[in-house]
Automatic annotation (TrEMBL):
Keywords: Methyltransferase, S-adenosyl-L-methionine, Transferase. GO terms for molecular function: methyltransferase activity. InterPro entries: TrmO-like_N, TrmO_C, UPF0066_cons_site, YaeB-like, YaeB-like_sf, YaeB_N_sf. The keyword ATP-binding does not apply. Residues 13-152 form the TsaA-like domain. It comes from Halomonas saccharevitans. This is tRNA-Thr(GGU) m(6)t(6)A37 methyltransferase TsaA. Belongs to the tRNA methyltransferase O family. PROSITE patterns: TSAA_1 (PS01318), TSAA_2 (PS51668). GO terms for biological process: methylation.
Length: 242
């Protein structure tokens, strides 16, 4: 038997910033970053990390790693989880998954850096974030493609991007979009998000059900429709301003 080293002590970490995003709720957010590029998100640094010196030179990098806390997930975790990609029934180890229900609730996302604003504190504009508004961020660091991009890597039960669904808009939904200044980008955002099929894996097939998903300041109500050829698409029934 080896003598085991004493277990390390617990660490205390402090958020360096907080996310403001187009996603007021967890439900509907794409399950990985880079899947809804129209989604706006900012990382607002908190004192004392909001000194512009902390980001000097960062503008020369196009992509960042964010380490954050899944603060809206329960602290409780289990050794086995059911990834949506496996249909919501088959189980894999929590460490074989990107589940948000994990020890320490740490998340990791690769996002695009669009802009750095240091006029009043530090605000980083991001593209492709998969983070709910209010997410506490623990660290950010630049992405190094020569070391960290491994296209030959095996990716287990998620070998490629999931298939996407076609998305339609009812006349009522189009009327709401037409009246909004951000109508075109909101339409595109809704399309990107619904194309990922946010319905829980185990619910798919419950066709009559109308789902609600919040994006920006609206509640998007949508429903699955199956056409004559058996193709499922998601139809935006109505868009309600909150
Ligand atoms: N790229 C990250 C996230 C994967 S899970 C990683 O691999 O670590 C992505 C899901 O996390 C999203 O669909 C969203 O529903 C959920 N999510 C985003 N921010 C969250 C938060 N602050 N708390 C709990 N869940 C969150």
């Amino acid at each position: 038997m080896h003598d085991r080293p004493a277990p390390p002590e617990a660490f205390t970490v402090t958020p360096i910033g907080v996310i403001e995003s187009d996603f007021p709720d967890k439900f509907g957010i794409p399950r990985q970053p880079g899947l809804a590029d129209t989604a706006r998100a900012s990382l607002v640094l908190l004192p004392p990390f909001d000194d512009p010196l902390t980001v000097r030179g960062l503008e020369a990098f196009s992509h960042l790693w964010l380490t954050f806390v899944f603060h809206q997930s329960p602290e409780r975790w289990t050794p086995l989880v059911r990834p949506p990609r496996l249909g919501g029934n088959a189980r894999v180890g929590v460490f074989a998954s990107r589940s948000t229900h994990r020890p320490n609730r740490l998340g990791l996302s690769l996002v695009e850096l669009v802009d750095i604003d240091t006029a009043d504190g530090v605000r980083l504009a991001l593209r492709g974030a998969d983070l709910v508004s209010g997410t506490p961020v623990l660290d950010l660091k630049p992405y190094l493609p020569w070391a960290e991009s491994r296209p030959e890597a095996r990716a287990g039960f998620a070998p490629e991007a999931p298939p996407t669904l076609a998305v339609g808009f009812s006349p009522a939904a189009e009327t709401v979009l037409a009246r909004r200044e951000d109508g075109d980008s909101l339409r595109e955002l809704i399309r990107e998000v619904l194309a990922q099929d946010p319905r829980p894996a185990y619910r798919r097939g419950a066709e009559e059900r109308v789902y609600g998903m919040r994006l920006r300041d609206v509640d998007v109500r949508f429903q699955a429709r199956t056409d004559a050829a058996g193709e499922t698409r998601l139809e935006v029934v109505e868009i309600v301003t909150m």
